[in-house]
C-alpha cells in the first residue's frame, strides 16, 4: 500500500472517516493502531512517553535515534544557528522566483516551494565557504527531498544517487576541522556534535536536517500561496496578521507532517486499548486537525477561526508534534512562512492551475500536481 505511486491521500481520507465513526483508537487493516484524538495523542507523545521507544524524526541514524545528549545539543545549536542569520532582510524573493519558473513563467507544484526555501535558508545550511557541500545539498534536495519525500519517484526505479550524495557529504565533512567558535551553519553544527560519530553518521544527520529545514517548510509554502490565491489573500493590502492566520489554517488543514509514528517499548493501554511491545502506533495529525467534534466546518479553509480558538482546538493543533520529538525549529519555520507568504501574496498577482484535485501524500503532504504563475505587480 505504501508504495502506491499515486500517493496516499485516499487512505488518509478513509482513515479520517473511520476516526469520525469510531470512539477511541482503532486498528487499521494492516494492524497498526491509529490515533485521531488529541488527548490520546498527547498521552503517547508526552504523558506516557516512557512506554515508547525514544524517537526523533531528524536526529537519528537509520531508525535509531542518536543519544539524548546529542539530540539536546543538536536542538540547541540548531536554534542558535537559525537565530544568527537575518534571513528575512538578506533574501531576494524576486530572484528566487525568476530562477525557479519555467519559460512560461510557471512554478510547478511539489517543487517550487522547496526551491524557494532552499535559497532562503542557504546561509544557515551551508555558508558560501562550503561550495562543494552546497552543490551536494542542491543534488540531495532534487534527487531525494523532491523525488522521494514529496513526489515518490523512488518506487519506480532503483535510486542510487542518495547513497552517493551521502558519501560525498561524508568525504567533505572528513576534510573540515571542527570550528572553535560558534557554529555558523548546519555544517558546523554536525561537525561539532559530541560523541563517537563517524563522518558518515554526521553526513546522515546533515541530510536529515536539510530535509527538515527545506522539505517540510517548502511544501507548506506552496500550500500557503495556493490557498492565499484561491481565497482572496493575494492582494497588495493583505496584512501580516491575515497571513499569520492563513499559515496556521494551512497547517491545520494540510499538515505537511501528516502522521507521527511511535513504537511501543512495553505492554500498556491507550484509552483502554491494549498495545503490545513492538507494535506501531500511528498518530494521524491530519485526522486530529479535521475532527468535526473539535473544529467547526473542519474541511473548509477558514483562517478567521484563529482569531479565537477554544481550549480543545489549541490542544488539537499538533503540526510540529509534541514532547521530546517536537520539531525544535518550528518557530523559525512559522516566521519564514509568514514572511515569504506576505511578500509573495502582497507583491505578486497569482494564477493557479491544478492537473489533479487531490493533494499528494507521501512522506510529506503536498499540493496537487499543477502549477502557479506569479506576476510581479510593482
Folded structure, characterized:
- There is one protein chain.
- Helix 8 crosses helix 11.
- The protein contains 15 helices and 13 strands.
- The chain has 378 residues and is of the alpha+beta class.
- Strand 7 (268-270) and strand 8 form a beta hairpin.
- It has helices at residues 9-21, 38-47, 68-84, 87-90, 93-100, 112-120, 122-125, 131-151, 161-175, 186-191, 199-230, 240-253, 285-289, 311-315, 330-347; strands at residues 26-27, 33-35, 60-61, 64-65, 106-108, 260-263, 268-270, 273-275, 280-283, 348-354, 360-361, 365-366, 370-376.
- Mean pLDDT is 92; it is low at 1-5.
- The strands form five sheets. Strands 1-2-9-6 form a four-stranded mixed beta sheet, with helices on one face. A three-stranded antiparallel beta sheet has the order 5-13-10. A two-stranded antiparallel ribbon has the order 3-4.
- The N and C termini lie far apart (48 Å).
- Helices cover 48% and strands 12% of the residues.
